[in-house]
Automatic annotation (TrEMBL):
InterPro entries, per the entry: Archaeal_gltB, Glu_synth_asu_C, Glu_synth_asu_C_sf, Glu_synth_lsu_3
Name used for this protein in its record: Glutamate synthase alpha subunit C-terminal domain-containing protein
Signal peptide: none
Glutamate synthase alpha subunit C-terminal domain boundaries: 12-183
Gene3D superfamilies: Glutamate synthase, alpha subunit, C-terminal domain
Origin organism lineage: Bacteria, Deltaproteobacteria, Candidatus Acidulodesulfobacterales, Candidatus Acididesulfobacter
Domain of life: Bacteria
GO molecular function, one term: oxidoreductase activity
Amino acid sequence: MITIDAKDMHYKELNKIIRENIASGIKNFFLENVNGQYYIGDGIKGDDITITVNGVPGNDLGVFMDGPSIIVNNNVQDNVGNTMNAGKITIKGDAGDVVGYGMRGGRIYIRGNAGYRIGIHMKGYNTQIPVIIIGGKVGSFFGEYMAGGVMVLLGLNNSEELAGEYFGVGMHGGTIYLKKKIDFSKYSKEVEFLEANDEDMIFLKKYLIEYANDFNLQAEDLINGPFYKIVPSSARPYAHLYTSSAL
């Protein structure tokens, strides 16, 4: 275990220290006084490595990460988990924009709200299923061009509006689950709004229990009650733009 005081430290120096210590066999890191440093955990491999961040990390936290766990005891900025392959990022505050862009595997759990374009181009890889669970609400373009994986929006902050505009635009794979029923008529016409079935709940249960444990919540409160799901109505939502109607 090692504790690193990141106060006034350049992000390159911080990430160099982390990588050097991983190479020497250190598995657990505690980063203190983090204030906007970029690229923490980027490209790091190994499912036995844990990085705990006290402070607010900068953009691109956990990009290309392949196995480690990152715990942030505060808010995070943009581009968390960009093209993440495996591992887990736990955020005890709010997240910025573009969480999980092109995410191929692993889990991102956010206790609070998240910004715009969450889960865009999220796809999965082979048998990997990327999962994002958000406790609060999100901004516009949620699930834009989503091609695979799972996102769960819980709405625990009792907001009347769970999401902004352009929900699920271009979505052609994956599943979005909602804890609350919403008026979906104003959202994308390329997706279907359904009630989750028993099979869905069996799948979700293990992730919701893990989420509840991470944030000291009652798992029963998350699991009980109806869930709703959004799935794409077509695997090619824009096919009509590129093909002729005349045969």
